[in-house]
Amino acid sequence: MIKIKNFVFNPFMENTYILYDETGECIIIDPGCYEKHEQETLSSFIAENNLKVVSLLNTHCHIDHVLGNAFVKNTYQVKLHIHRIDEAILKAVKAYAPNYGFAHYEEADVDEYLDEGDQVRFGNSILDIVFVPGHSPGHIAFYNEEQRICIGGDVLFAGSIGRTDLPGGDFNTLIESIHKKFFTMSDQMVVYTGHGPETTIGNEKLTNPFCAIKTA
């Protein structure tokens, strides 16, 4: 069974996730750890729980979700996986990182690409991938239907949605992704968001002011 550990890192208050199961293998999704104490928090949890990091994944490649990519790659000697379309977004981070106060940002190269229909495996666990552009052009999410968990990035939040005013963002595309991809999942699916608390598909269908499709 998949267990999920969440850390809130960097000034953007970004959610970094470690997913692991009974085998001790784990994956890291969207490492936002930039400061040394943040990196130590992440690595301490991994060491204290005797976990083996086998993969590094990005839901998308905005700065707040990739600040720790190089640290994770270098520390655990794992490959970085993203959607191909977001590679340009990732490469752009180095140019603007100093403007946000991240003067020592270290770039990490992409090793493999993921797309809808692919699967991520670790230990005894499997995550399916869904393509959900709109917040960024190459945004993907990772979910397990049996356990009803979804690592959703910046697509859908509790009572809100991802912003669409950044390069490559598009409001109509994002709403379409939510309606056609997320809202076709079980109402009991728990969405672990890129910022803020988790939510459920059913709750957002009913109450989200930007994309609800049901009436109370």
Automatic annotation (TrEMBL):
Residues 13-195 form the Metallo-beta-lactamase domain. It comes from the Bacteria. Pfam families: Lactamase_B. SUPFAM superfamilies: Metallo-hydrolase/oxidoreductase (SSF56281). PANTHER family: HYDROXYACYLGLUTATHIONE HYDROLASE GLOC. The keyword Ubl conjugation does not apply. This is MBL fold metallo-hydrolase. It comes from Splendidivirga corallicola. Its cofactor is Zn(2+). Keywords: Hydrolase, Metal-binding, Zinc. Coiled coil: none annotated. InterPro entries: MBL_Glyoxalase_II (IPR051453), Metallo-B-lactamas (IPR001279), RibonucZ/Hydroxyglut_hydro (IPR036866). The lineage of its organism: Bacteria, Pseudomonadati, Bacteroidota, Cytophagia, Cytophagales. The keyword Hydrolase applies.
